[in-house]
Design goal:
By secondary structure, this protein is an alpha+beta fold. Helices cover 22% and strands 27% of the residues. The site of the ligand CSC[C@H]1O[C@H](OP(=O)(O)O)[C@H](O)[C@@H]1O has 13 residues, from strand 40 and helix 16.
């Protein structure tokens, strides 16, 4: 195809940014170009259209090569004909545009580096962020921001009869191997052209290439998806079979690409309220999407092993929630996960769980989705007529939209539009320090691929939803523990069971242990997720949804990330009351809290584990530290022994054994004193020295008010302090920095997980059978401790306050 000269081609300008960690972000003047498929093509020497309506002119285009030689692509009137406008750093795409020469539906543009070349993005070890406004995108209309493996010059140099090139938007390909591409490999795709709509048809050939969808979405649903292809570079598939046209099992998977792709759709993964109008990501308003391409080596030349996405809105970082893949119950499979990013393991599990053909793996997984060679950035809006409709995005299991057909979408939603803006590309974390933190220090920790990569520990779960008879039996058995009924009031147990039932949709799950993960510890190993729950307590929501998980034995524990998934709560802002109240409401009796701490003693070297027995409070009174605060009820909990002595004592030998078994030589210390400071800045050298003089052995920012609140809620509480640094008291050493802490965080988190995997079953058993076992009183110590701490009832006490307190202390305040 040739280049026309009748209508000047003026690429709408747009500013993007390139960001580095060292230098910040630099503005770049770029532009967008309309895909050639949308353009008017006419005879080189006249005005006869080569393609009109939905067919080729047989005279001008009797066969593919002559068609390309005879036809010229024209410049585009971006705004009037196609509804494409740019302004500063934003591009707006309108869905339907009634223009001078008819009605245009949908569009596709590519980001240009210069007038004749697409911008090429090398993705490994990089991230891309952009803002998007999908508020005007209803069901059935999908906006896309994605990367495809097109040639930088649009095929101009590679194909003799392509003289238009990237300047006219040629060379498109994607993983659907679309056969509606009119200009392909320097030829018209005229052979076997069969119309399928008033304007479009399909030719014999299709244009395949690897595709990475960083965002396909509308106001109701959104996905990120990896679509590998076995071939690298754009590839012309030869016929409807090779192009995978037939939607039956025989042919659909014979083409070189994974058309289904491996998607991450939070709705499909059981988080229907995460994304949507009024959702956690509120699609009524603009938000930011960041996608990181994490390599195995942490270097640009490594292999991409994980694709992580997160959101930001109103300055709040919103990590993608941990999600389990829950296959249909009749499949008999347990749940898979948890996952919060795209990895090869996640993709294999996804396909297995939903009974899909594992094309993702067949055609090469992530290795064949993102290669080092670079990608072109596409932005689009459509009702995906080519794939019949966009229900793969937003309807059925994929989103809340009702079934629809693409024609109606066009008629009913002509004013749909999307605005993409503020596109930033660069080094991981260069756009956002928070994300850098995770990429550098905790990506491994949050990455299920790497968890799975540790091999044997990641077991396929025994889900409650698989109606596993043994698990069921155990639950029934647990319903009758005499000791519990003795120790805790039946009314309270019923209340907790009720809440659990409401939250989990299952009867009487016993969850006696709550684990709090601190910095670096955002999940446990060797557990299967039963359910994520997010109880709203009278003190608000916990730091993040609580994950109820099952040990391989079937024992359930509750896990909570203190700083939230994505580490979004600073130590002073951790909603400790909601955290403890939420645990209590689930029936938890004992809390094992992990914390990254600084060491104030030479012998407690970074990497050591400590079970402290005392606390010095250096918080500044800004953290609500009592459930009674702000109520008309006064209580004074005993706190002379801030940790549960018996629980700590029980832990000593078990943790020691677990550390010995791990074999990394991690030392355990007991009987130490921890200073809890306000933060978020670390201590001065003088303060650090002073804490030593006071008798402090460790320092953190988190144990208070957590321990106080656990005591008020009558929960046993022990801290497993994991030393990350030597604070700032050593005269010859550097003062502590976050970077210093990060260095040890990973190893400590691994060991913490090992400790949990080793001791939780026994702890559960000890607690569960406490009346009969030699550890009989692990729990009894705290139970009843508030009885005489609460000032006697008076007429001045507000009944609503009593009701509120019943949430954590139903023993004393409920049933009034
Ligand atoms: C990341 S350095 C300081 C931070 O780490 C500790 O958190 P956590 O106790 O939740 O492990 C420390 O208390 C500070 O909050
Ligand atoms: N040195 C330190 N001070 C306070 N909190 C910490 N958490 C980890 N190291 C710390």
């Amino acid at each position: 195809q040739q280049s026309g000269t009748l209508i000047p081609e003026f690429h709408p300008p747009i500013t993007t940014k390139y960001c580095t960690n060292a230098g910040g972000c630099t503005a770049q003047s770029r532009s967008v170009v309309l895909d050639s498929n949308w353009r008017w093509a006419h005879t080189v020497s006249g005005f006869t259209s080569c393609y009109a309506g939905n067919t080729w002119d047989a005279t001008v285009c009797p066969e593919p090569v002559m068609c390309a030689q005879n036809c010229a692509l024209e410049g585009a009137d971006y705004a009037a004909t196609y509804g494409i406008t740019t302004s500063s750093d934003a591009v707006r795409l309108n869905f339907v545009t009634v223009g001078p020469s008819g009605t245009n539906v949908g569009s596709r543009v590519f980001l240009m580096a210069d007038a004749n070349h697409y911008q090429i993005f090398k993705l490994p070890n990089k991230e891309i962020s952009f803002d998007v406004d999908v508020s005007e995108l209803p069901c059935g209309v999908v906006a896309g921001m994605y990367f495809v493996d097109m040639q930088a010059d649009g095929g101009l140099s590679g194909f003799a009869d392509n003289n238009a090139g990237a300047r006219f938007g040629t060379g498109y390909c994607d993983s659907q191997c679309p056969r509606n591409v009119k200009w392909l490999n320097g030829e018209g795709n005229t052979l076997g052209w069969t119309p399928y709509s008033e304007t479009d048809g399909k030719g014999r050939y299709g244009s395949c290439c690897q595709e990475m969808d960083i965002f396909q979405g509308n106001a109701y649903s959104s996905i990120g998806a990896a679509h590998p292809c076995s071939s690298s570079n754009q590839y012309r598939c030869q016929d409807e079979i090779e192009c995978g046209e037939r939607y039956d099992y025989t042919y659909a998977y014979e083409n070189p690409c994974d058309k289904d792709g491996c998607e991450f759709n939070t709705y499909r993964l059981g988080n229907p309220s995460f994304f949507g109008p009024g959702g956690t990501v509120d699609t009524n308003h603009k938000f930011t999407v960041t996608t990181q391409f994490i390599t195995d080596t942490g270097e640009d030349d490594g292999d991409v092993v994980e694709i992580r996405r997160s959101y930001k809105q109103n300055d709040n970082d919103i990590p993608v929630p941990f999600s389990s893949i829950v296959p249909p119950p009749e499949s008999g499979m347990g749940t898979f996960g948890p996952y919060e990013s795209i990895t090869n393991n996640y993709c294999a599990d996804l396909k297995q769980a939903f009974g899909e053909v594992p094309a993702f793996t067949y055609v090469g997984g992530l290795d064949n989705t993102i290669t080092p060679s670079g990608r072109v950035l596409v932005m689009s809006i459509s009702n995906d007529y080519y794939n019949r409709d966009a229900t793969w995005l937003d309807s059925g299991a994929h989103g809340p939209c009702p079934a629809y057909n693409a024609d109606d979408v066009e008629l009913e939603s002509p004013s749909a539009r999307v605005v993409f803006s503020n596109i930033r590309f660069g080094e991981i974390g260069s756009d956002d320090e928070q994300l850098k933190f995770f990429a550098l220090s905790a990506a491994d920790d949050l990455s299920p691929s790497i968890v799975a990569g540790r091999g044997d520990q990641w077991e396929l779960p025994t889900s409650l939803f698989t109606s596993n008879k043994r698990a069921r039996h155990e639950e029934e058995h647990h319903q009758q523990p005499q000791s519990h009924q003795d120790v805790f009031g039946i009314r309270e147990r019923q209340a907790n069971a009720h809440r659990l039932h409401d939250l989990l949709g299952i009867d009487m799950v016993i969850v006696l242990i709550g684990v709090i993960g601190g910095s670096g510890l955002y999940h446990l190993d060797n557990l299967s997720i039963v359910k994520e729950v997010n109880p709203e307590t009278p003190w608000g929501f916990p730091s993040s949804p609580i994950i109820i998980c099952a040990l391989p034995s079937g024992t359930k524990v509750a896990f909570l990330a203190r700083h939230g998934q994505g580490h979004i709560h600073a130590p002073s802002a951790v909603p400790a009351r909601a955290n403890i109240a939420a645990f209590k409401s689930l029936g938890v009796r004992a809390i094992l809290a992990f914390s990254a701490v600084g060491s104030l003693r030479e012998e407690i070297s970074p990497g050591s584990f400590v079970l402290p027995s005392q606390i010095i409070d250096r918080t500044k009174g800004v953290r609500p530290a009592s459930f009674f605060e702000g109520t008309s009820i006064v209580a004074h909990a005993a706190f002379g022994d801030p940790f549960s002595n018996k629980l700590v004592h029980w832990l000593e030998s078990r943790v020691q054994k677990a550390l010995d078994a791990e074999g990394r030589g991690v030392q355990l210390f007991t009987g130490k004193t921890i200073v809890c400071m306000e933060g978020p800045q670390f201590s001065t050298r003088a303060e650090s020295v002073m804490y030593r003089q006071w008798g402090g052995d460790l320092i953190n920012m988190s144990v208070l008010p957590e321990a106080k609140l656990a005591r008020e809620a009558e929960l046993s509480y022990a801290l497993v302090a994991t030393a990350t640094d030597y604070d700032s008291w050593r005269p010859q050493s550097e003062a502590v920095t976050a970077m210093e802490v990060f260095k040890t965080l990973q190893a400590n988190a691994d060991t913490s997980r090992h400790v949990c995997a080793t001791i939780l079953d026994e702890l559960h058993e000890a607690i569960d059978n406490n009346a009969a076992s030699e550890d009989a009183d692990i729990l009894c110590e705290e139970v009843g401790s508030m009885k005489f701490s609460i000032m006697p009832r008076s007429a001045k006490q507000n009944p609503q306050d009593r009701e509120k307190l019943a949430y954590v202390l139903p023993e004393y305040f409920s049933g009034e």
